[in-house]
Amino acid sequence: MTTPVALTIAGSDSSGGAGIQADLKSFAALGVYGASAVTALTAQNTKGVTGIHAVPPEFLAAQIDAVFSDLEVGAVKIGMVAQLASIEAIASALRRWSPKHVVLDPVMVATSGDRLLAADAVAALRTMLIPLATIITPNLPEAAALLNEPVAGSEAAIECQGRKLLTFGCPAVLIKGGHGQGSESVDYLIRVGGTLALAAPRVATQNTHGTGCSLSSAIAAELAKGADLETAVRNAKAFISAAIANADRFSVGHGHGPIHHFHPFY
Fold first, then answer.
1. DSSP state for residue 246 in the 8-state scheme
2. DSSP string, 195-226
């Protein structure tokens, strides 16, 4: 029996709630072996980001090559990329190794509101990484930022922005509704063939640190296990919804605390 493997290419969160740490927790919780390539070190906690130290692009590439040259990677998740040179290194590595699935989470702003992506890197994200992705998973502000448009305020506007994002070269877009309003959090899976709305009850909690990272890595985990894209997205949404619903079982930090990846286990 082959062990499913997923690789996360993302930033490290020193407080353990988001980034690489959240990705590896998601992989493990879903029965997938996780590997990682660190794009940047962050000094952060539940209250905010106080520093970012980018990993040299040549060393980032060395990490990715080391993983692919030995492990059978079933899916790749890309999170915080920090700088233009990192995007170039990742895009080059993906073209070298041609992974079957790439889940791109265009992380631009942390839950705390801290900006995580340099302005000159946004254009490179559009032109170099999105065309290599199986699916991209922006939240409402990130979708708007990628298009230089206002944040969508209606289902029709969300679908319109999703269709525009498809023109960047990816076959699927999942626009996350966590920043929206109402009793339900609705994510929209938008593909050329149609749009699927996935709703879950909105949970009243401030413990949402790492939610976006964990959702994209959960999708990658499901794809690594062999699920089709719609099933992967549905399963990942269910996993994250439960992790948020159980987040208040944790008492960690004084800001936006982490979600509970391992709630079924303890």
1. T
2. EEEEEEEPP--S--BTHHHHHHHHHHHHHHTT
Query: Which two tokens mark 38?
Result: 């660190």
Q: Where are the domains of the chain?
A: 5-249
**What is the CB neighbour count within 10 angstroms for residue 70?**
9
**3-state secondary structure at position 34:** strand
Whole-number average pLDDT of the chain: 91
Q: Determine how β-strand 102-104 pairs with β-strand 75-78.
A: parallel
Backbone angles phi, psi at 96, to 5 degrees: -65, -40
State the catalytic residues. Answer: 176, 208, 210-213
CB atoms within 10 A of CB 28: 15
Which CATH number describes the domain made up of 5-249? 3.40.1190.20
Phi, psi of 72 (to 5 degrees): -85, 90
The partner residues of 176 in beta bridges, in order of sequence, read 139
The tokens for 135 are 């699916």
pTM: 0.95
pLDDT band at 185 (very low <50, low <70, confident <90, very high): confident
**pLDDT value of residue 9:** 98
